[in-house]
Amino acid sequence: IWDILFEQGPQEKIKSAKISLTSYFDEILNKLNININNIDEDFRDGVNLIFIMGILENYFVPFFYFNMTPSSNEHRVNNVRFALGLMRDVGLASSDRVRPDDIVNGDSKSTVRLLHDIFTKYKHIAAK
């Protein structure tokens, strides 16, 4: 559905979806005093994806499992790959279709697809 929306859909719908996802994930990450302003940029290093999974699944991911301050594309790709593995472990299907490089490179379609799948699975969890 996201492929069709991005290719043929009105830009207003895409913008509206991004605003809604930004708001939802901003509320979740505010628990860690992290603000999300731009979903195309704020998930590129994988750190926020890892934090989201920890919050939503109610576990702590030890910092030595990922690079908190990735300074290279390799670090960012490894972080996103790790986050996708966490998602795969809980059955998020999009984690198999999304390539880590796409998230790191800011591919909007891949990022929105992934975040929407997370939202769909966890929307019952209040972001409070």
Outline the structure in words.
The chain is mostly helical and 128 residues long. It has seven helices and no strands. The chain has helices at residues 2-8, 11-29, 47-57, 73-89, 94-97, 100-104, 108-122. α2 packs across α7 (108-122) and α3 (47-57) runs parallel beside α4 (73-89). The radius of gyration is 14 Å and the shape is globular. The mean pLDDT is 89.
Fold topology:
Layout lengths: L1 H7 L2 H19 L17 H11 L15 H17 L4 H4 L2 H5 L3 H15 L6
Low-confidence stretches: none
What fraction of residues sit in β-strands?
under 5%
Tally of helical runs: 7
Q: Quick one: how many beta strands?
A: 0
Instruction: Report the sheet with the most strands, covering strand number, pairing sense and barrel closure.
Output: none
Distance between the termini: 29 Å
Shape: globular
Order of helices and strands: HHHHHHH
Helix content: 55-70%
What is the radius of gyration? 14 Å
- Helix/strand structural class: mainly alpha
Kindly state the mean pLDDT as a whole number? 89
Essential attributes:
128 residues; mainly alpha; 7 helices; 61% helix; globular
Structure summary:
By secondary structure, the chain is mainly α. Helices cover 61% and strands 0% of the residues.
